[in-house]
Write a structure and sequence with these properties.
Order of helices and strands: EHEHEHEHEHEHHHEH
Helix content: 40-55%
Strand order of the largest sheet: 3-2-1-4-5-6-7
Oligomer: single chain
Structural class: alpha/beta
Number of helices: 9
Shape: globular
CATH class: Alpha Beta
Bound molecules: NADPH dihydro-nicotinamide-adenine-dinucleotide phosphate, 2-hydroxyethylsulfonic acid
Largest sheet: 7 strands, parallel
Strand content: 15-25%
Length: 255
């Protein structure tokens, strides 16, 4: 394997993907805003004997994202995989109570950030003659839920973009996959609610996915033979059917 770019590697699914691919002896190219965390992660993963390049990048900054890709050392080429993982939700409530700043953060990170880096990486993959772009979507992109409005819309946009991208890249030998999880216990809910106690309650009373479960799914998609493209992989806890139906909240209400 060559190098794997992972956006948002300072926490959760991105960090677990970094560990999963380091175990496979892939070189890593990581970003996030919290550089101190990337530094600690790189220190830890060096034990696998892989090269690790990391940089503080805000995925909302198009120039910063382009500069990040331009800055990649030649010895980290080729880029086998881009994992578009950086993303977040802010708030949960009716649209008319929405906070513009939160909307912009979600739209600019979850949609535009993915666009910026994907645009920058595609020419490298085209020149190599192969590559794999894996984006972390969500079940929220398949079916919206009450109060999820803007977050769900960003993930629905990503779902559509992946389909377009697959068509745009026909004939290039570049694979396009989305891995769409349900409930994963990470910092996601803490970021969404800005409230650690409320965040904990999201995961109480059922067994959510771990970030490692999702990293395993991403790794599975990435390690199929090159003639195999998994378009979409949906992964939820056994106790969760979709965003609105799970064992904890629904079992007693079945008709
Ligand atoms: P975490 O909050 O644990 O991790 C989010 C990561 O994204 C962090 O590393 C964060 O780094 C990074 N990030 C956020 N904003 C930016 C930005 N502007 N620029 C660069 N990096 C950024 O959550 P998860 O691991 O759960 O989330 C990862 C992805 O998985 C997201 O796209 C999320 O929508 C998706 N997902 C999560 C689910 C869940 O239940 N947890 C379910 C379905 C999908 P930093 O703050 O340091 O910049
Ligand atoms: C995160 C999962 O159901 O909270 O995308 O939106 S959900």
């Amino acid at each position: 394997m060559g190098s794997v770019i992972i956006t948002g590697a300072s926490s959760g699914i991105g960090m677990a993907c970094a560990e999963r691919f380091a175990r496979d002896h892939c070189n890593l190219i990581l970003n996030a805003r919290r550089e101190d965390r990337l530094e600690r992660l790189a220190e830890r993963l060096k034990l696998y004997g892989v090269a690790i390049y990391y940089k503080k990048v805000d995925m909302r900054d198009s120039d910063g994202v382009t500069a990040f890709i331009r800055s990649l050392p030649q010895d980290l080429m080729p880029i086998d995989i881009l994992i578009n993982n950086a993303g977040l939700s802010r708030g949960l409530g009716p649209l008319d109570a929405g906070v513009l700043e939160d909307w912009n953060e979600m739209i600019d990170t979850n949609i535009k950030g993915v666009l910026y880096i994907t645009r920058a990486v595609i020419p490298l993959m085209k020149a190599q003659g192969y590559g794999h772009i894996i984006t972390i979507g969500s079940i929220a992109g398949h079916e919206p839920y009450p109060g999820g409005n803007v977050y769900c819309a960003t993930k629905a946009a990503i779902k559509s973009l992946n389909k377009s991208l697959r068509m745009d890249l026909v004939g290039t030998n570049i694979r396009v996959t989305s891995v769409d999880p349900g409930m994963v216990e990470t910092e996601f809910s803490e970021v969404r609610f800005r409230d650690a106690q409320r965040a904990q309650k999201v995961y109480q009373g059922l067994k959510p996915l771990t970030a490692g479960d999702v990293a395993d799914a991403v790794h599975f998609c990435a390690t199929r033979p090159r003639h195999v493209n998994i378009e979409n992989l949906v992964i939820t806890p056994t106790q969760q059917v979709n965003a609105m139906i799970n064992d904890r909240d629904y079992a007693g209400k079945k008709p």
